[in-house]
Amino acid sequence: MAAPLSVEVEFGGGAELLFDGVKKHQVTLPGQEEPWDIRSLLVWIKKNLLKERPELFIQGDSVRPGILVLVNNADWELLGELDYQLQDQDSVLFISTLHGG
């Protein structure tokens, strides 16, 4: 069983507006059978943090196109995207590059 993880989740570029305007969240992910990865983190975020209009953040089991994801300041595309296994004290930043008019 995977131990609980303490992870910093941050939203920017307007994405924080979907989370009551709060940019930084220090979250404790509960222990579970499978190791935590970005895919399971997104499910957790949708259930626990996302306040409105999930379609602006989530598409299918990933983030919408136009949302950049950085894990410890590295592009998640270099780390395996949804399959990246979270480590204790990781920092995950979601930045929206979508700007409506």
Rg computed from alpha carbons, rounded to a whole number of angstroms: 13 Å
Tell me what portion of residues adopts beta-strand conformation: 25-35%
Based on DSSP secondary structure assignment, what is the total number of beta strands? Answer: 7
How many distinct helices? 1
The CATH architecture designation is: Roll
Subunit structure: Component of a complex at least composed of URM1, CTU2/NCS2 and CTU1/ATPBD3.
Organism: Bos mutus (wild yak)
Pathway: tRNA modification; 5-methoxycarbonylmethyl-2-thiouridine-tRNA biosynthesis
Main location: cytoplasm
Overall description:
- Helix content is 11%, strand content 31%.
- The protein is mostly beta strands.
- It has a single domain, classed as Ubiquitin-like (UB roll), CATH 3.10.20.
- The strands form 2 sheets. It has a 5-stranded mixed β-sheet, with no helix packed on it. Strands 3-4 form a two-stranded antiparallel sheet.
- The N and C termini lie far apart (47 Å).
- 22% of the residues are buried.
- The mean pLDDT is 94.
Topology:
Elements: E1 5-12, E2 24-29, H1 38-48, E3 58-59, E4 62-63, E5 67-71, E6 74-75, E7 91-96
Parallel strand pairs: 1-7
Antiparallel strand pairs: 1-2, 3-4, 5-6, 5-7
Subunit structure: Component of a complex at least composed of URM1, CTU2/NCS2 and CTU1/ATPBD3.
Pathway: tRNA modification; 5-methoxycarbonylmethyl-2-thiouridine-tRNA biosynthesis
InterPro entries: Beta-grasp_dom_sf (IPR012675), Mopterin_synth/thiamin_S_b (IPR016155), Urm1 (IPR015221)
